[in-house]
């Protein structure tokens, strides 16, 4: 399937942009109220804590002031008989205020310690809403995948980042072990071996690694790779690293690509196809993915209430395509794309500016700001139409 504008030029991202845009509108309308509810809870708790602190400080001030005034009055009267009365007054005041202070301090500590629990569930809801979208819906993001194989389990991580926005996923896979054959298909690497009937001589022999196990894998969208392989006995280990058609192969810690004789036997074209095969494996074998954290400029965007700012980063990318759709479309009130099948059949898909604006406006001022970034608010214009998408 090919995705194109109405003037038949290709979209910078080969995805169903209208569907992604609708999903973005949906998660925006769900996430912003959740974040606002957390902010509201924090504000109310901050006000309550401020009030409690002021009451405690007021008691302290009263007690100090009372003692100062009484001591001054005792000195002015200078009668020894009033000292027991003065002490009794101060002791009664201290006891009563002390009890009340303890009650207020306990209430203060309870609120302060209980604060995260009050909105922890809401933060989890935000992660859940964002989880299905961020993994594929952030245009122009660089991504890095890491996969580790332990006994009877494969676990992985994915990190994406663009314009200060970072998001991390934990991944699980459909299989318990991963062989070279499953991941890469056929792969053979050269090595030295001693052969001969009468006289043993060192010769180069190609070893089929199909049954070797993949123990570690790292891959990014720049097609850089790092793979660790070992046989079932764990007494032979290989490592493949590199990218951009430059790959390095190691057996244990010895680089065999630098060996003038062994290096000639390495099929570099086969190695260059590894990133494509890794990508295909991830697309077909990820069983579950869970969003674990979202960062903005290296700060936790959930705990610092910056999810709205994260959405603005995404909206900037989407806004570029929205404006191109309007510029290259026939109806200036509709964002339209065409989808072309392999047989040349084309269908159109669209969403109106009014529909986008109405849905976002229901969210409140934040939604209207997002609408402005997308360029569907008539009062707002996109400042720069240059593509941010990579």
Notes on the protein architecture:
It is a single chain. The chain is of the alpha+beta class and 390 residues long. It folds into three domains: 1-32 and 305-372, no CATH class; 35-122; 164-289, no CATH class. It is built from nine helices and 15 strands. The chain has helices spanning 17-77, 83-137, 180-184, 260-263, 268-272, 274-285, 307-328, 353-361, 365-374; strands spanning 2-4, 142-150, 153-162, 165-173, 188-195, 201-208, 213-220, 225-230, 237-243, 246-251, 254-255, 286-296, 299-300, 334-340, 346-352. A ten-stranded antiparallel β-sheet has the order 11-10-9-8-7-2-3-4-12-13. Strands 1-14-15 form a three-stranded antiparallel β-sheet. A hairpin with a 2-residue loop joins β10 (246-251) and β11. The chain is flat.
Q: Give the helix level as a range of percent.
A: 40-55%
> What's the total count of β strands?
15
Radius of gyration: 33 Å
Order of helices and strands: EHHEEEHEEEEEEEHHHEEHEEHH
Strand order of the largest sheet: 11-10-9-8-7-2-3-4-12-13
Shape: flat
**Unreliable segments of 5+ consecutive residues:** 381-388
How far apart are the first and last residues' alpha carbons, in Å? 20 Å
Q: Counting H and I runs of at least 4 residues, what is the number of helices?
A: 9
Q: What structural category do the secondary elements indicate? A: alpha+beta
As a percent range, the share of strand residues is 25-35%
Mean pLDDT over the full residue set: 89
Number of domains: 3
Characterize the main sheet.
10 strands, antiparallel
